[in-house]
Design a protein that fits this description.
By secondary structure, the chain is of the alpha+beta class. It has helices spanning 17-23, 112-125, 127-148, 152-192; strands spanning 3-7, 10-15, 30-33, 40-41. A hairpin with a 6-residue loop joins β3 (30-33) and β4.
Amino acid sequence: MEYFAIINGAQAGPMSKAQLALAGITPQTMVWRQGLQDWVKAETLPELNDVFMEDSAFGGYARPEEQLNPYANDDRPVSPAPYNNYSDQPKRPNPYNPYGNGGQPIAHTNWLPWAIVGTILGTAFSCIGMIFGIIGIVKANKANGFYRNGLGAEGDVANSSAKVMTILALVLGGIGLVMMITGATTKLLQFATFTP
């Protein structure tokens, strides 16, 4: 079972019982676990009594762990109840929600695959196209990170740069390919019409 605790005025967790003991929680420490409606003092949870036990000849964890929560094997991720007892504390992010946009990344045009194609095309047919392609990869990757974290404005700026760099890489690589084909065709025609 995993617990969240307020340690030094900040939310910490998820932690196991052993990690709670190492963190030095006291009976007055506010904790939360799946199945609770709100934060409670650690002393009110019977399953944490052995965390506060004095060391004995059998060690601090002499009692077997009891299964008190009927939802302990439930695989659904559950976020802790918001801790509002301290009004001066900022709201803590949900540990199960890595996104800032209601749990979902922001939909956008992903220029990363095209930037990779532009880099390959630029590498084969145009050195300058390769440079623009690499810049496009970096900008597209940065934009994807911003969008994944729910930062739409920053993502739009990086995505716009990625689009411009990728298009330049594709155009320059395409021009290099056309020049190579026309140059090879010209040489082939010269060789075919060569008469000694």
